[in-house]
């Protein structure tokens, strides 16, 4: 598959949040008003003004030692994006794919449709609308930088190699190589979305330990994931939420 | 750092203790990550599970202020289990030295203690000399009075049970850390320590680091790639400012500040020039007079002559026995004993311990000049919380200055690399580079002294050379050349002719007769006839990451200091895969030479190829008078071996190691604002302060950056779930944290990342909070955590003890 991709290696992410700040800086996004809510994670969630957010999750691991997981959340730039599919009828051209990189890009035309149509279609809970205007925004893959031979701002700033970007094939190879390397230390490690996304994550633990929408929930009937992404993004997300609720209730 | 940032990648085991490198030195994690990708292990030891801990192979918690207990246990483990690098220890350290009978240690006190003066007589801690005046040694390390045996005796008490009862670290965790780290005692393996203010900001700060230095020497980790004792400095240029004498007790290049009892240059040089009778000891500080005289020539130029002691009498002198540190300055200011103050690039009202005392001290001034980028708690102290502007006489002047990217010059990073930076933008408005402000100030003061017929002792001011401007502007190149130094007359050295005005090629050329100048001997070689060495930008293509062509490193571009200890007595590297230097006997037409890093002196190895001793060699630790690294360190204020003492404020009534509860020579102060409370039920919890990635220091630069404030908007206090339950505090609640000295409001972060400690059978809770905030901005951000911290500190350096103190926390 041609085009570009992010490979996000959370096993070496130390949550310095350089990526989160660099994203704001390059895209000249305003700071939102925040309060400390008992977590280092701030802002609390993605927004029209926040395309990239490092999520913090802590739990007690083996041998009574804490585990602190960091998830640099952003648009996955699906190869066949359900949001595009969902928006196509009502707002043709509202979402398009950059032919050079594969970046999924939002335009002002999205104003025409209900934001929830796009938001509900995303299995990863990424798109956000501006209150009042109806404009929608999310990570752009820094296509303006990439078209000019630069790395996306978040990748450029990352000191440890957690954020990687390049030709998709190379990123896939890197992800597989890293997975093999970390597997002895993290037996539950996996890479999400190697087949159908342009932002895939190496996770040291089950995806749900990082974030509800870290990955699409596996389907009980074994349906092809690609089809699932394309056709039923909306219900997938609903399923994810229910799944999360069930897990919480189950303790 | 004895090594440097990139060199961390060569380590087999990285101990991060007394620092939180992932959060406070995030770029360092590029190299930590690289080391781990190569198979290196990472250990994090911290009272709190941090972002650093999250990446570690192993994490262990300890109570703040018990690092010596923790490390003393490691020393015992290394000795008991024969994990030490025997040849290295015997040959390169003073473990083999015989200590005089006058040295003793009893129940927490070393010999020579004067309880009235709270001071030690260090002459009791001397080495035994032979008839030639050379220190006696026992290379078998068996003599009961040799350092090695005394070390064993010292730490016999540091068994796992006692260490665990003091630190609160479970025994099995201690054991795991000790085993992981001491595995680097094998030849060819290297362990490194990354520490910062978590070790220094204690009443036993220097001894914390000494403990680790002893461990590194026992394991043969000094001088080797991936080893060393590595201080992660708290600001990008703290290394540079320390090298250039930021502190009261030193002049540039770690020359000593003169004192009143040393009236002449001869007295001064004699006092600080160590002597040795050992022909195999380089005793590099024996060159002291060359550096002191070259410095005086740099200060006073032609006015400094042999006849007038090169202007030595113009230097300010310390009163003997008196200290002039940060804590002392604000103590004296609080007592109203001086009236004017420059707060330059600092924010003392938020940055120093016991900030309420500091803020009150500022009210006693007639005037203050605040040189900074932004308004801050210091410049605006007169309208701060609890202040009545009508009653404050202090007149405050604000001088806006350029940021680091708005001026040309150098910074010296933690790895001792002096790196030149170009100016990226003009400073806004009236802001000026600090150098320019200083130039104008200096000229104005000189002018006033010149004009005033009755000026008292104008000589030091009027005789200053002070010629670092070009067209009226501060010229950083002129300054950098001045620091390097010049030949002041035509001369021939080692067959090479130098003209008056030539730059000195290195400190080996500096002279004690006034024929050379150097503003800092340690930087001599940084700006030479080859140009500005710190502006070089050649990346290494292969090798161990020394990058000898990138920027410049003191001393003489040596990237790993003590590197002659990285080889055996034949000059062969202990670690074949990561050689720092190696002796090539065929180089220089068979005369032999070192290859690799710039060696610690060019002398040949200790043994010839045939195993016979080489009389031309020198011992590797050239900065020590005897040429051997100090396992036994007789120069410190609080003892030749580190010993665990509790912090000045602590949660225990007894020190389990001795009946000496706290460091017997730690300074305390006696104004009514200097309150200390141990084991007081009103303040039952251990407190500590720290930083986060998103803010810097008191936040003067970062609190005004909306994106950073968005990520870390407010003062928070981290506590365990158990403490939250005990005090009815939920995650996100507003709470008050208070000590005997002050209080702050903060948001509670109730987390599993902090856990109560079991200390001697009792449960002890610990909390922690960052010190980045202040009342000026943002409005709901909270105030400085230093309102809580005590005015006490290390007896050697006087750095405040802001990492361990006692507090209470309650819901608002």
Tell me the major beta sheet of chain B: 6 strands, mixed
Mean pLDDT of chain B: 97
Give the tally of β-strands of chain A: 10
| Amino-to-carboxy terminus distance of chain B | 44 Å
Radius of gyration of chain B: 27 Å
Structural class of chain B: alpha/beta
Strand content of chain B: 15-25%
Number-wise, the strands of chain B total 33
| Sequence stretches where pLDDT stays below 50 over 5 or more residues of chain A | none
Structure annotation, total helices of chain A? 9
Assembly context of the chains: heterodimer
Instruction: Name the poorly predicted regions of chain B.
Output: none
Proportion of residues in β-strands of chain A: 15-25%
Protein topology:
The complex is a heterodimer of chains A (251) and B (812).
Chain A: E1 4-9, H1 18-27, E2 53-60, E3 66-73, H2 82-88, E4 95-97, E5 104-106, H3 115-121, E6 128-129, E7 136-137, H4 143-146, H5 153-157, E8 163-167, H6 168-182, E9 190-191, E10 199-203, H7 207-210, H8 225-231, H9 233-249
Parallel strand pairs in A: 1-10
Antiparallel strand pairs in A: 1-8, 2-3, 4-5, 6-7, 9-10
Helix pairs in contact in A: 2-3
Chain B: E1 13-17, H1 21-24, H2 28-37, E2 41-45, E3 58-60, H3 67-80, H4 86-92, E4 105-106, E5 109-110, E6 113-114, E7 119-120, H5 147-155, H6 160-167, H7 171-182, E8 191-195, H8 197-200, H9 205-218, E9 229-231, H10 238-243, E10 250-251, E11 255-256, H11 265-272, H12 288-300, H13 326-334, E12 340-344, H14 348-351, H15 355-362, E13 367-372, E14 395-400, E15 409-412, E16 417-421, H16 434-451, H17 459-462, E17 469-470, E18 473-474, H18 476-484, E19 491-493, E20 496-498, E21 527-528, E22 531-532, E23 552-553, E24 581-584, H19 587-590, E25 593-596, E26 685-690, H20 706-711, E27 716-720, H21 721-727, E28 734-738, E29 743-751, E30 757-759, E31 762-764, E32 766-770, E33 805-811
Parallel strand pairs in B: 1-2, 1-8, 2-3, 8-9, 12-13, 13-14, 26-32, 27-29
Antiparallel strand pairs in B: 4-5, 6-7, 10-11, 15-16, 16-23, 17-18, 19-20, 21-22, 24-25, 26-33, 28-29, 28-33, 30-31
Helix pairs in contact in B: 3-6, 3-7, 3-9, 13-15
């Amino acid at each position: 598959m041609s085009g570009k991709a992010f490979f996000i290696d959370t096993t070496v992410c130390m949550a310095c949040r350089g990526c989160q700040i660099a994203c704001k800086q390059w895209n000249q996004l305003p700071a939102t008003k925040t309060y400390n809510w008992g977590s280092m994670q701030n802002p609390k969630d993605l927004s029209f003004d926040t395309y990239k957010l490092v999520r913090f999750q802590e739990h007690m691991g083996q041998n009574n030692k804490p585990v602190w997981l960091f998830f640099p959340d952003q648009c996955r730039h699906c190869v066949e994006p359900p949001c595009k599919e969902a928006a196509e009828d009502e707002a043709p051209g509202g979402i398009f794919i950059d032919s050079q990189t594969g970046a999924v890009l939002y335009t002002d035309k999205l104003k025409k449709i209900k934001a929830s149509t796009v938001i509900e279609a995303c299995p990863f809970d990424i798109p956000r609308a501006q209150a009042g205007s109806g404009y929608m925004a999310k990570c752009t893959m820094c296509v303006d930088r990439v078209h000019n031979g630069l790395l996306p701002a978040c990748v450029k700033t990352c000191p440890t190699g957690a954020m990687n970007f390049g030709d998709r094939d190379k990123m896939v190879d890197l992800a597989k190589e890293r997975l093999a390397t970390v597997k002895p230390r993290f037996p539950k490690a996996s890479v999400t979305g190697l087949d159908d996304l342009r932002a895939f994550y190496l996770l040291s633990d089950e995806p749900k330990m990082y974030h509800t929408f870290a990955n699409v929930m596996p389907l009980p009937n074994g349906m092809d994931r690609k089809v699932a992404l394309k056709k039923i993004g909306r219900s997938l997300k609903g399923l994810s939420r229910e799944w999360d609720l069930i897990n919480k209730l189950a303790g | 750092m004895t090594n440097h940032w990139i060199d961390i990648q060569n380590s087999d085991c990285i101990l991060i203790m007394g620092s939180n490198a992932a959060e406070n030195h995030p770029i360092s994690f590029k190299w930590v990550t690289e080391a781990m990708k190569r198979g290196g292990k990472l250990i994090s030891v911290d009272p709190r599970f941090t972002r650093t801990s999250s990446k570690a192979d192993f994490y262990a918690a300890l109570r703040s202020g018990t690092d010596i207990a923790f490390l003393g246990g490691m020393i015992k483990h290394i000795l008991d289990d024969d994990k030490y690098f025997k040849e290295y220890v015997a040959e390169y350290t003073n473990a083999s030295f015989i200590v005089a009978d006058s040295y003793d240690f009893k129940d927490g006190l070393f010999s020579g203690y004067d309880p009235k003066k709270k001071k030690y007589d260090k002459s009791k801690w001397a080495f035994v000399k032979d008839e030639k005046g050379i220190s006696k040694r026992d290379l078998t390390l068996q003599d009961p009075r040799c350092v090695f045996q005394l070390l064993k005796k010292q730490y016999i008490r540091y068994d796992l049970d006692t260490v665990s009862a003091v630190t609160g670290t479970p025994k099995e965790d201690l054991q795991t850390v000790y085993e992981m780290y001491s595995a680097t005692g094998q030849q060819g393996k290297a362990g490194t320590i990354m520490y910062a203010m978590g070790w220094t900001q204690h009443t036993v700060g220097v001894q914390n680091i000494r403990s680790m230095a002893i461990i590194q020497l026992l394991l043969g980790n000094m001088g080797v790639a991936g080893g060393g004792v590595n201080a992660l400095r708290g600001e990008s240029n703290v290394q540079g400012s320390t090298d250039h004498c930021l502190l009261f007790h030193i002049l540039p290049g770690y020359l000593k500040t003169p004192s009143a009892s040393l009236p002449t240059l001869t007295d001064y040089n004699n006092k600080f020039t160590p002597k040795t009778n050992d022909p195999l000891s380089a005793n590099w500080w024996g060159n002291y007079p060359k550096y002191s005289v070259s410095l005086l020539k740099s200060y006073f130029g032609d006015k400094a002559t042999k006849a007038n002691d090169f202007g030595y009498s113009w230097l300010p002198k310390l009163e003997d026995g008196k200290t002039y540190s940060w804590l002392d300055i604000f103590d004296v200011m609080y007592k109203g004993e001086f009236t004017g103050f420059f707060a330059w690039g600092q924010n003392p009202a938020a940055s120093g311990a016991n900030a309420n005392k500091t803020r009150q001290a500022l009210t006693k001034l007639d005037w203050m000049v605040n040189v900074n980028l932004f308004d801050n708690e210091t410049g605006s102290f007169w309208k701060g919380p609890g202040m009545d502007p009508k009653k404050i006489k202090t007149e405050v002047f604000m001088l806006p200055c350029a940021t680091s990217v708005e001026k040309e010059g150098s910074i010296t990073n933690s790895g001792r690399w002096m790196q030149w930076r170009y100016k990226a933008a003009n400073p806004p408005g009236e802001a000026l580079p600090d150098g320019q402000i200083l130039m104008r100030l200096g000229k104005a003061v000189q002018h006033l002294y010149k004009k005033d017929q009755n000026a008292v002792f104008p000589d030091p001011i009027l005789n200053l050379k002070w010629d670092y401007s070009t067209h009226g502007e501060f010229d950083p190149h002129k300054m950098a050349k001045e620091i390097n130094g010049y030949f002041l007359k035509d001369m021939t050295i080692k067959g090479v002719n130098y003209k008056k005005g030539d730059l000195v090629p290195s400190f080996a050329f500096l002279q004690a007769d006034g024929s050379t100048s150097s503003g800092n001997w340690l930087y001599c070689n940084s700006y030479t006839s080859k140009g500005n060495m710190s502006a070089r930008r050649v990346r290494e293509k292969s090798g161990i990451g020394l990058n000898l062509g990138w920027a410049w490193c003191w001393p003489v571009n040596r990237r790993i200091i003590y590197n002659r200890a990285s080889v055996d007595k034949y000059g062969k590297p202990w670690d074949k895969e990561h050689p720092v230097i190696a002796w090539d006997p065929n180089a220089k037409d068979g005369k032999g030479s070192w290859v690799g890093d710039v060696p610690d002196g060019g002398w040949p190895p200790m043994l010839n190829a045939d195993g016979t001793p080489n009389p031309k060699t020198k011992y590797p630790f050239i900065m020590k008078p005897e040429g051997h690294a100090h396992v036994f360190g007789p120069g410190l204020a609080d003892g030749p071996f580190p010993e665990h003492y509790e912090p000045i404020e602590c949660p225990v009534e007894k020190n389990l190691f001795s009946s000496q509860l706290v460091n017997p020579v730690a300074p305390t102060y006696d104004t009514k604002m200097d309150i200390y409370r141990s084991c007081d039920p009103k303040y039952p919890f251990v407190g500590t302060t720290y930083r986060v990635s998103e803010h810097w220091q008191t936040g003067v630069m970062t609190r005004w950056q909306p994106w950073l404030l968005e990520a870390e908007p407010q003062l928070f206090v981290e506590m365990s779930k158990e403490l939250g339950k005990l005090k009815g505090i939920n995650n996100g609640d507003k709470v008050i944290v208070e000590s005997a000295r002050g209080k702050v409001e903060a948001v509670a972060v109730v987390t599993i990342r902090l856990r109560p400690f079991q200390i001697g059978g009792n449960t002890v809770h610990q909390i922690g909070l960052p010190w980045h905030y202040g009342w000026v901005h943002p409005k709901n951000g909270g105030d400085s955590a230093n309102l809580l911290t005590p005015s006490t500190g290390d007896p050697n350096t006087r750095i405040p003890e802001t990492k361990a103190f006692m507090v209470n926390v309650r819901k608002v």
